Amino acid sequence: MFRLAPCYAKSSSRCVFDMQIVGNFDAQQGVAFRLSEGCSHFRIRLQARNTYRTAIQLGGSGMGSDITDVAIEGCELHNCTDPSQNSPVIYCEGNSGRGFYPRRITIRGNHIYDGRSGGNGATAGIQLSTSIPGSVVADYRIGPNTIIGPAVRLTNAHEFTANYDPPSLADGAGVTTTATINGAALGDGVNASFAADLQGITLTGYVKATNLVSARFQNESGGMLDLASAQLRLTLEKA
Fold first, then answer.
1. Global confidence as pTM
2. Neighbouring C-beta atoms of residue 223, cutoff 10 Å
3. Residues 49 and 97 reside in one and the same domain
4. Which residue blocks in the chain are alpha helix, DSSP H?
């Protein structure tokens, strides 16, 4: 194992990074590749293995100017997580106190994989900090990306998951539950899934209002149905 100083950019524009970082690296300063502030019109295509920390970070809590128009596309990121810190593989963070954020960000066509087992199941493949308001996230374009392996969640930045126990529903009856996904806007699509047999109940996802998405369980089976409690997943697809 040897140490890697992170690739770091600040106050620059119109750059293309097509890089490989391969080997047993430990990015002790935080991340393998970071744009801190004042950067615009970047395209990042990174092949990274075994960095053991966040692979790509845009912004941070201390940023003093916006990052704008950055595309993270076609990256191959393998084993780029920290089991002890649950560090996300691709991470965007803003300075909400001063109103500076990564803006108009595209994250698509990336392959995120971690084959290590145990101790890292809560790590996000792509994570947007809650410091970034929904009005900013609404201009992000995320997906499709491939996120697989036992050490990363099968999630993306526009997703809600929680256990939900629908009430018993008579034929013709339905129930709706609503959740927050920052960046949701009318006209976006919502994919809804439920980790239990729906037994004939129809499940539909939709955007209810800005930053709010809903799932509708509708029973048209011809009889009373009572579903078991299970994980509900709502995934936003930006229009």
1. 0.64
2. 10
3. yes
4. 134-137
